[in-house]
Amino acid sequence: MQFLLFAVILMEGYIVLASELLAIRLVLPWIGTGTDVISIIIAAVLLPLAFGYHFGGTFRKRCREKGLGHISVRRKLLSNVTRSTLILCVGLSYILLEVFFGALNNLGIEQRLLQLAIYCAVFLVYPVFLLGQTIPLVSHYFSSSALSEMTGKMLSFSTLGSFLGSVFSSVVLMAVVGVHYTAVFVIFLLCVLIFLLAKKRQIAYMATAAGAFVFMLAANSSEQMRSLGIVSNNGYNTVQVFNSSKDEDTRLMLLNNNLSSSYKTGEGSIFNYAKLVRKSYLEPIAKADPKKQILVLGAAGFTLGDFDDHNDYLFVDVDPALQKAAEDHLLLHKLGANKKFAVIDARAYVHQAAERGELYDMIVLDTFKAGFAMPEHLLTREYFQDVKAALKPGGFMIMNSIASAHFEDDYTRRMDNTLRSVFPHLTRTVMPGSGEEFNGWEKTRLGRGMYISNVIYIYRNDPAGDKDMAIYTDDKNTYFLDK
C-alpha cells in the first residue's frame, strides 16, 4: 500500500514540474520567452499549488461542516486527477493552442502578457490546484503517530518527482522525442495515476483516462505535426517549412511562428534585407584573398552565403536540430565544407571569442524569438561590446532587427540608443517586405499601429574614427578643413 501511495506522490511532483516547463515551451510561438513570461508561469504554478496544499489539508473538515457525509480520499484523488487530465490535454496540445491564441487575437486581445495570463488562468491554475491537494489527501492513509516521519518522506518523494520532471522532461524527452511527445508522456502518467487509484467497478474513470490518452496521442502525433508543416519540435524551436503560395519554387521556414528564412534554388533568400547583405557585402568578397572569416549569430535556415564556397562561415545557434531541418527541408542540400555550425548561445559564444581574441571580418546578428522580438540578453550594451571586441579593424557588423521605421515606440528608440553607445557611427536602413515598396507616410503595418519592418544596422569597425565625436556649431565650424 505504501509503495502505491509514494508512487502517486512521485508522479504528482513530476507532472506538476513537467507541465510548468511544457507551458513555458509551448507558449513560445505566440508569447515568446523572457523573465517576464517565465515568472508569470511560475507564479501560475506556485500560487495554486500553495492553495491546493491548504485546501487538501482541510478536506475532512469541510466534508463534516457541509454535511456531505463520508467521501473517500481515493474518490477525491480520482476526481482531482481526472479533471486535471482533461484540462491539461487541451493546454499542452500544440494544435489546440493554435486555435486558442488565434481566438484571442480575433477577439482583439493582442497584448502578449495578457494572452499569457488568460492561458495560465484557463489551463494551468486549476489543474495545479487540484494536483496540489495530493500530498495532504494521501497523508490520511498514515497513522497520526507516524505522520511526522511520513510527511518528510512524502515531501522528499514529491521533490524527487519535481527534480525528475525538470531534468528528464527537458534534457532527455524534449531533445529525443520532441515537445509534443513529452506532453503525451505527461498525460500518460496522469492516466496511469487514474488506473492506479481506480477500483474495478470505477470503469468511467478508466474509460475517461483511456479516451484522454488516445486523444492526446492523436492530437500530438508525428503525422499531425507534419500536417502543420512541423519538421522539428524540440525544447528550443518549433520549425515549420512550407512552399510559398506565391512561388512553388520558394520555400519558407518558420521558427516559433516567425517567418525566419526563405530559399529559392539558384537564388538564395528572397528577403530584401538578405539580398542587400548578399549583393553589397558577400558577393564583393566571393574570391577574397585571404579568405574572410564570417560569423553568423542566429543560424535559422543557413541561407546566408549559400552561394559562397570560398570564405569561411561559422553559424551559431542554440538549437542542435536546426542544421538537419534546414538541409533536409529548406536548402535540400548539405552545407558546404566551408560552413560550420556551433551549438551554443550567441552571447556565450561572442563572450568566449572576445576572451580568446578571435576576430572576424564580418559578424551578422540575426537572432529572434517569437512575435518578431529579439532575446532580451542579446540587446544589451555588454553583449554588443563583446560583438565589437570580436570584430577586426575594418570589419563589418550587420544586424537585422524588426522595429518601428520612425522610432514610434520605446523599444525601437532604446535599442537604437544602445547600439549607438557601442557602435557610434552606424548606418540604419529600413527594408520593406518582399515585393513591397517602403512608404514613409504609411501609418501602420503588421497590425502594430505603426510602420513595423526589417531595420538593418550596419557598422564598419574604425577604432580611430569612433573617437571623433566633434560637431559643427556657429562658434566652431571646421567644415572647410574636414571635407
Describe what this molecule looks like in 3D.
- With 483 residues, the chain is α/β, with parallel strands linked by helices.
- The protein has two domains: 226 residues, Growth Hormone, Chain: A (Up-down Bundle); 225 residues, 3-Layer(aba) Sandwich (Rossmann fold).
- It has a seven-stranded mixed sheet with strand order 7-6-5-8-9-11-10, sandwiched between helices. Strands 1-2-3-4 form a four-stranded antiparallel sheet.
- β6, α15 and β7 form a beta-alpha-beta unit.
- α3 runs parallel beside α7, α5 runs parallel beside α12 and α11 runs antiparallel to α12.
- The radius of gyration is 27 Å and the shape is elongated.
- The mean pLDDT is 91.
Secondary structure: elements and pairs:
Elements: H1 2-26, H2 28-31, H3 35-57, H4 59-65, H5 73-91, H6 94-106, H7 112-123, H8 125-131, H9 134-138, H10 147-176, H11 179-197, H12 203-219, H13 222-227, E1 230-233, E2 238-243, E3 250-255, E4 258-264, H14 272-282, E5 293-297, E6 312-317, H15 322-331, E7 339-343, H16 346-356, E8 360-365, H17 381-389, E9 391-404, H18 410-422, E10 426-431, E11 452-460, H19 463-466, H20 479-482
Parallel strand pairs: 5-6, 5-8, 6-7, 8-9
Antiparallel strand pairs: 1-2, 2-3, 3-4, 9-11, 10-11
What labels describe this entry?
20 helices, alpha/beta, elongated, four-stranded antiparallel β-sheet, 483 residues, Growth Hormone, Chain: A, seven-stranded mixed β-sheet, 11 strands
Give a short summary of the structure.
It is built from 20 helices and eleven strands.
